[in-house]
Amino acid sequence: MNEEARGQQDEPELLRDQVQQVLRHRVLVGSGLLAGLLAGSWFAFGSAPTYESSSEVLVRAATVNPYVSNGVAADKQINIGSERQTAAGNTVAARAAQKLGRGTSEVGALQSHLQVTNPPNTLVLKFSYVAGTPKAAAEGANAFAQAYLDYREKQTAGTVAKMVQGYKAQLDPLAKQRDDLIKEINRLQGDTEKSTVLAAQANLLGQITQLTNNITELKSLDTTAGYVTVTAEPPKKAEGLGTPLLIALGGVLGLAVGLLGAWLRMIFDPSARSAETVARALRAPVLGVLPKAPDGPLLAADGALAEQYRSVAFRLAYDRHFADRRRLLVVEPNGEGTTAGAVAVNLTACFAETGMSALLVEADLRRPGLAGRLPEASRGRAAWATGRSGDGTPWPAGRIVTVDAGESGTFELVPGTRVPHVARTLTSPATTRLLDQADAPGTTVVVLAPPVLSYADALALVDRVDGVVVVCDPRTTARTALERVRELIDGAGGQVLGAVLHPGARRRGKKRRRATKAATVPVPSTPLHDETVPLNTLSSGSR
Questions:
Q1: Structural domain count, the chain
Q2: Could you tell me if 56 and 175 lie in one domain?
Q3: The pTM is what?
Q4: What residue ranges are annotated as transmembrane (predicted)?
Q5: What is the CATH number of the domain that holds 326?
Q6: Which of 385, 308, 376 has the alpha carbon at shortest distance from 342?
Q7: Fewest CB within a 10 Å sphere: which of 75, 112, 145, 156?
C-alpha cells in the first residue's frame, strides 16, 4: 500500500480523533450551549412583541378619461421612485399623525415605524407599519396610505387651480380685445378695412377658443391620486421567529460558539490530551492507561490498577525488541519522577510473577528513595556488589535489597545512592556490568532514571538498555516535550517501546505542573553533582 492510500485511510481516524478531543472540553461546549439558550430565552420573553400590517395603494395620474390612451400615457409619466420618497416624507407623516390623533412631536417616531416599498414593475406603493398591538399596526398603515392619497390629491388640485387661474388671466384681455374689434367692425363701412379687422377677429377668436378649451379640460380632470387596493387588517400573530424557534436558534448558535471555543482550545493547547496524540508524538504505541494516579503504595496488590500493570508487562514481554535484550528503561518526560517509580516497581513485580528473575535498578542518583518505600524480604549482597567497584565509583557497589511483592513473589532492587559525579557513575564499567545481568537466561532488568528533559542521566543509559517506556500524564505533558523525548532517545541509540499514561495526582494547594517546552536538556548544578557530560559523549561508554 502506497503512502497516498495509507494517508487517505488515516484521514477518518484523524478526524475522529479531533472530534473526540473537541468533545473532551465539555465545560466550554456546555457553557456555550447554556449561554445560547439563555440568550434565546431573553429575546423570546424579555423583548416586547411587535406586529406588522400592510396596505397597498395603486398610484395614478390626473386624467380626463382613464380608459383612453391619453390616460395610459399620463400614468407612464409617473416617477414611482419619487412617489415612494414622497410617501415616506415628513408632510405625509404629519397628515398621518393628525389622523391617528398624535401630536407633531411624534412625527419622527411614526416615520421610524413605517416602511414604504414598491413591488417591481408596478405603480403600487406598499405601506408597512410596525406597532406594539395588532390594532395600532393596522391603523397606522391605513392612516399613512390615506394621508398619502389626500396629500397627492390636494397637490394635484392645487396645481389645476393655478393653471386655470393662469389661463383666465390670459383670456380676460383677449375677451376685451374681441369686444373692441366687434365695435370697430360695426363702425367700418369699407370692405377692405372690414376684411382686415375680420381676419384679426378670427385669429383672436381662435386664441380665445383654445384658452377656453384648456380651462374646460383642466376643470374636467379627475384629480384622484390613486386607489387603496389592499386595506390593512390587524395581524393575528406577532412578527419574529416565535418563542420555541428563538430558543432553539439560540441553543444552536451557543452550541456552535462552544464547539468553536473547544476547537480553538484544542488547537492552542500545548498538552497532548489524548492517547492518540501521545502515540503520534512518540511514534510508539500506548501500552496502557492507568485507571488512577499511583499516589498510594508503590506496589499495587490487586484491582484494576494491578491488572493494567500486568497488561503492560505482557505487551512488553511479547515485544520483539524487548524480548531480544530484556532491558527496560522507565522514564518520565519531566516532573518529579514519582509516577515513573511506581510503574517501574510494578512492572518488575509483574515480570517476577511470570517466573523471571527480575532486577530493578534505581538509577536516580539525585533523589533516591525506593528502598524506604518498599517492603524488604531479606538482605544480602550479590557477588558483583561486594566492596567498591574497581574504577572507584561508589555506585552500584553496595547492598542489594530483596523486595517482597506479595503474591507476585520477590525481586531484587539495587537502590540508588547519592554520588558526587552522576554522569561518570552512570557511564562506569560497574554500571555496565550491572545492566548486563539481563544477558542471563530468564532475567529481566528494569532501570528507573530521572526525567529525560530535566537531567541527562537517562540518555547516559539508553545505549545500554535500548528499550524505553515513557510514563506521562497527557493532560499536563506538551506534545513538543514528547517529540523532544523521542528525538533525544533516538539520537542516543535507543528506541521508545511505548508509553504508559496516568491521570495525574491532584494535590490540594498546588497547581498541576505544566509540561515544559524546553528545547535543550538542562543539568542543574548542585554541590553533589558538579560534573556534567555532553550529550554527544554519554553513549560512548562500553557495555
A1: 2
A2: yes
A3: 0.55
A4: 245-264
A5: 3.40.50.300
A6: 308
A7: 112
